[in-house]
């Protein structure tokens, strides 16, 4: 039984603790102000920051990098790509070419090797069978073509053409001419294209050799711009933004005591003293306005009473006149439709409930005479001891925070200088190595001779000249004079004989140089990870030079390759990320940097005793209580506006316009006109009505308008008085009572929780300073990793410099032989085609048919089958000498003194010719 009771008491005790616990917690977590958040201030309630956030200025610098001059590519990109594809398929060994043909000078610059200087091409030629066969073919052309030319010219081969039978071979020869002409035309087109390609390549080669100095100059300027922009950005972030942080926190600390004083006034409700001071200080100005209100009130009462009495008399007289004239219908209609019966019933004409302003004037004069305005001023002076206690504590933490910030500024400036030196050294080394790499193969100009461009230009002119001469001969032979066509084709053959060996030799030289330079200047940068040349060319940067004062236990960073640094820049990284990946400098260490050593604020010193704080004394409270019950206590502008209005009559009495139907005076005049038509004997009544109409016009001017103007002026002055001496639209007495109660509550708050509130605000101040510093460090790290030193321009400078090795020098060399050598190869078959066309053009100068030869006494032995008979030197004919006797002319042709006695008819000859043509 007892155990059950004990168990029950335990349950009750636990339940009691559960109910009491939240109450205890809530007592410690009691809000500073009901229905308000945080410290109960107005600005916090509006969502504003307690101390304000710092908006850092942004870095506005924009780097203007140099823009290289854009030259026309002449459509050579496809030619260069084709040469790349061809060489990549041919040079498939690793290494692609034997050693000795490319040399790496100073670990970062390419040059032609010693084997090139000594013209030792054996290893290169024998490395690839395809290259060996190709060079052998070119050498055969170079060597044999001159011998063929000598033989062709010495033996007059251009005249040794098979004559054949022109009429018989016409169809076959025309087909042959067309086919050969098309082939030669195709070769001419290829020659023209090759010559144009060679000319453009030679021009680009000259331009590439001359651009080295310009490339170095642009690279130097861009690197200087990059470094200056990066340094300026670092200085802005480490120095300018940090100084803005110091200024922001310094301003907060300097004005902290004022800010905290305002906050405790706001939270406690002591701002009622300011309102009370404002109201009492405005009493002299309010007195002037109140006296003006008194005058306006008297004016409204006086004019209003006169207006009311006047319109009442007019209404009474009009009603009596209705009885006097005998109840006419028009009169009845007027009384019914007009508002004459209610013209004096508007509440705006009754001023009985309007306050007596003279009482308020007397109340204000008493307040001024008794100097009530000194009460809130003395209370505010008593509040100064709280401000002094706050300032004493802010002065204690302010210097410590500013000292920590100054020490942090010096430390950040040291880091800034160190970072700038590291970036300067790294970027300078990267640029120097890039510049040296970009200077590769500049010795080609010296190795190939000063007249290389002239020789190449001569080759291009030769190719184009040969193509043009052959084209002119081809067109002339087919379309115009074949004799001229033969001459041009023969001239083209002579030019080919003279030039083809020279063209092939120059093209072969560029082919060999192009293979070597392509392997050293283009291929390494396409396959950087696996290319032996690139691994030799890729400069190594000694990272340990940029990381001074290494600890003995710290691992030395490995060397940094230029290509790896640039590859990192390709990913839109910043220079700080590159430094981090290569263990040169870690900008993220600033996130753990401690600048403020000052911790949270300690409680307010014990010598600041707030328990006896007094804002209003007992006597002052009693005086203010009497003030709230004095003559001015009932003042409120609504009491005036509720009993005064400007609609003094339900209808406008009159005006300057007599015919306005909306005026009461106009309606009375219309009534007079109607009475004149219906009751001609009502002369006196009409005269009286006209008099009242004129009176109404005068009332409108003399009473209604002045009263309306006075009413508007009264509203304006009452609104000004409300702003001066009322609180929250309450009556004066209620407002004073409310403010006094607020001051009493503020006094109680300061006594009980003032010290705790100040300590909380000061703790919030130090926390805010720590937050601002942490936010600055986070911003510093974020900007460094994402905005400062974007190394994409650095990668652009690198690839623009290194890439120009291939683009400005190697590609034009390969483009030159790519255009020249096909032309040289095609010139060999072009010789044979031109020779065949010469023979065909000479064989068929004109065609007149077989009958012509028969009439001349000759016949085609191939077509007719008749044995050819040589003509005698001195022919002896029967009859007249030199004459041919014809027997049976038209049927049989008889040749005398012939060893063969045969006759043929023309029909037999025609059949033989037709048979030959069919064959």
UniProtKB/TrEMBL annotation:
Its main location: membrane. It is found in: Membrane. It holds the Pfam family Prominin. Residues 898-919 are annotated as: Disordered. Residues 1-27 form the signal peptide. InterPro entries: Prominin (IPR008795). It is a multi-pass membrane protein. GO terms for cellular component: membrane. The chain crosses the membrane at residues 128-155, 176-200, 454-476, 488-518, 815-834. Keywords: Glycoprotein, Membrane, Signal, Transmembrane, Transmembrane helix. Belongs to the prominin family. This is Prominin-like protein isoform X1. The lineage of its organism: Eukaryota, Metazoa, Ecdysozoa, Arthropoda, Hexapoda.
């Amino acid at each position: 039984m007892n155990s059950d009771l004990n168990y029950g008491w335990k349950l009750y005790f636990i339940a009691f603790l559960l109910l009491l616990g939240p109450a205890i917690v809530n007592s410690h977590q009691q809000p500073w102000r009901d229905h308000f958040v945080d410290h109960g201030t107005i600005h916090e309630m509006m969502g504003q920051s307690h101390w304000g956030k710092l908006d850092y200025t942004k870095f506005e610098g924009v780097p203007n990098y140099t823009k290289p001059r854009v030259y026309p590519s002449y459509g050579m990109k496809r030619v260069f790509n084709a040469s790349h594809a061809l060489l990549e398929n041919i040079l498939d060994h690793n290494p692609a070419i034997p050693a000795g043909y490319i040399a790496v000078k100073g670990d970062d610059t390419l040059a032609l090797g010693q084997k090139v200087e000594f013209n030792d091409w054996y290893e290169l030629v024998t490395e690839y069978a395809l290259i060996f066969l190709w060079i052998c073919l070119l050498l055969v052309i170079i060597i044999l073509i001159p011998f063929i030319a000598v033989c062709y010219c010495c033996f007059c081969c251009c005249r040794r053409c098979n004559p054949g039978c022109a009429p018989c071979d016409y169809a076959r020869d025309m087909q042959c001419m067309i086919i050969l002409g098309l082939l030669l035309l195709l070769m001419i087109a290829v020659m023209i294209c090759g010559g144009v390609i060679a000319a453009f390549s030679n021009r680009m080669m000259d331009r590439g050799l001359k651009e080295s100095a310009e490339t170095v100059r642009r690279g130097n300027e861009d690197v200087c711009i990059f470094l200056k922009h990066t340094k300026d950005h670092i200085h802005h972030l480490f120095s300018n933004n940090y100084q803005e942080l110091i200024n922001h926190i310094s301003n907060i600390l300097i004005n902290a005591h004022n800010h905290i004083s305002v906050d405790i006034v706001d939270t406690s409700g002591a701002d009622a003293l300011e309102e009370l001071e404002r109201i009492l200080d405005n009493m002299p100005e309010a007195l002037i306005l109140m006296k003006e209100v008194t005058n306006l009130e008297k004016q409204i009462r006086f004019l209003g009473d006169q207006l009311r009495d006047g319109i009442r008399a007019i209404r009474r007289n009009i009603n009596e006149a209705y009885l006097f004239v005998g109840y006419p219908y028009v009169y009845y209609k007027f009384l019914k439709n007009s508002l004459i019966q209610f013209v004096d019933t508007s509440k705006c004409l009754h001023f009985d409930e309007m306050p007596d302003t003279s009482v308020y004037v007397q109340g204000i004069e008493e307040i001024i005479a008794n100097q009530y305005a000194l009460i809130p001023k003395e209370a505010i002076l008593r509040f100064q001891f709280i401000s002094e206690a706050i300032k004493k504590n802010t002065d204690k933490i302010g210097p410590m925070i500013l000292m920590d910030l100054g020490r942090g500024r010096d430390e950040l400036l040291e880091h800034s200088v160190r970072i700038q030196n590291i970036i300067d050294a790294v970027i300078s080394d990267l640029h120097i190595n890039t510049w040296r790499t970009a200077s590769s193969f500049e010795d080609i100009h010296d190795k190939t001779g000063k007249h290389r461009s002239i020789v190449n230009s001569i080759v291009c002119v030769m190719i184009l000249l040969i193509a043009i001469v052959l084209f002119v001969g081809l067109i002339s032979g087919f379309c115009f004079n074949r004799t001229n066509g033969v001459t041009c084709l023969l001239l083209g053959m002579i030019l080919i004989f003279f030039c083809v060996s020279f063209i092939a030799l120059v093209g072969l030289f560029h082919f060999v140089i192009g293979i070597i330079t392509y392997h050293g200047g283009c291929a390494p940068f396409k396959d950087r990870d696996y290319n032996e040349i690139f691994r030799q060319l890729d400069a190594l940067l000694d990272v340990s030079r940029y990381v001074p004062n290494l600890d003995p236990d710290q691992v030395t960073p490995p060397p940094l390759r230029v290509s790896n640094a640039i590859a990192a820049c390709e990913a839109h990284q910043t220079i700080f990320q590159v430094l981090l990946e290569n263990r040169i400098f870690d900008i993220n260490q600033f996130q753990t940097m401690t600048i403020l050593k000052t911790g949270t604020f300690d409680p307010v010193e014990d010598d600041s005793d707030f328990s006896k704080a007094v804002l209003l004394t007992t006597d002052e409270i009693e005086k203010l209580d009497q003030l709230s019950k004095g003559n001015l206590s009932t003042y409120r502008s609504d009491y005036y506006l509720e009993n005064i209005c400007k609609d003094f009559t339900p209808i406008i009495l009159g005006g300057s316009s007599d015919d306005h139907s909306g005026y009461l005076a106009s309606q009375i005049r219309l009534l007079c006109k109607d009475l004149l038509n219906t009751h001609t004997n009502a002369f006196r009544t009409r005269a009286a009505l006209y008099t009242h109409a004129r009176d109404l016009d005068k009332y409108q001017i003399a009473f209604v308008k002045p009263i309306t103007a006075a009413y508007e002026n009264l509203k304006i002055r009452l609104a000004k008085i409300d702003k001066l001496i009322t609180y929250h639209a309450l009556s004066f007495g209620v407002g004073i009572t409310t403010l006094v109660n607020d001051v009493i509550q503020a006094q109680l708050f300061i006594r009980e929780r003032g010290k705790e509130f100040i300590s909380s605000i000061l703790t919030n101040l130090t926390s805010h300073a720590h937050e601002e510093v942490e936010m600055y460090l986070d911003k510093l790290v974020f900007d460094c990793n994402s905005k400062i030193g974007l190394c994409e321009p650095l990668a652009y400078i690198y690839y623009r410099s290194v890439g120009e090795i291939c683009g400005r020098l190697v590609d034009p060399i390969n483009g030159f032989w790519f255009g020249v050598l096909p032309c040289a190869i095609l010139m060999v078959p072009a010789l044979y085609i031109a020779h065949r066309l010469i023979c065909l053009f000479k064989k068929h100068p004109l065609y007149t048919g077989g009958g012509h030869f028969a009439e001349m006494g000759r016949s085609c032995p191939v077509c007719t089958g008749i044995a050819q008979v040589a003509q005698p030197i001195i022919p002896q004919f029967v009859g007249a000498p030199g004459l041919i006797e014809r027997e049976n002319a038209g049927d049989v042709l008889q040749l005398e003194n012939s060893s063969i006695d045969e006759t043929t008819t023309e029909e037999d000859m025609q059949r033989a010719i037709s048979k030959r043509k069919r064959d």
